[in-house]
Design goal:
Largest sheet: 4 strands, antiparallel
CATH topology: Aspartate Aminotransferase, domain 1
Strand content: 15-25%
CATH architecture: Alpha-Beta Complex
CATH class: Alpha Beta
Distance between the termini: 33 Å
């Protein structure tokens, strides 16, 4: 990658991926039913779906595991989950040079 993009190109790519992650984190923080589950100072965003009135626990974790599995199985994007101290969450790591701002809104990948 360094040979192809050069130092400035790699720097631009890393910065752009982090900026897109910040957009995703802002969406998770401001969208009803979603919550950011960890700080996201880099290109990784951890969040989960929390229906109104649901508490932390196995039921919420299982719901988010099912969401993660369904999104991953759809094959439109590489999507993983993570077990954090506050429960299971969706884990998005933005790393592709092909990811654009149009790809970030959840409506584009969480139906």
């Amino acid at each position: 990658m360094l040979k192809q993009l050069g130092r400035e190109g790699v720097t631009e790519l890393v910065c752009r991926c982090c900026e897109l992650a910040q957009e995703l984190a802002a969406i998770a923080e401001t969208t009803s039913g979603l919550e950011l589950t960890a700080p996201s100072p880099t290109n990784v965003v951890c969040f989960r779906y929390r229906p109104e009135g649901w508490s932390d626990g196995p039921e919420l974790d299982e719901l988010n595991r099912r969401i993660q599995a369904e999104v991953a199985a759809a094959g439109d994007l590489f999507h993983t989950g993570a077990q954090l101290s506050n429960g299971f969450c969706q884990r998005a790591a933005i790393v592709s040079w092909r990811t654009t701002p149009e790809d970030v809104p959840m409506r584009s990948w969480m139906r």
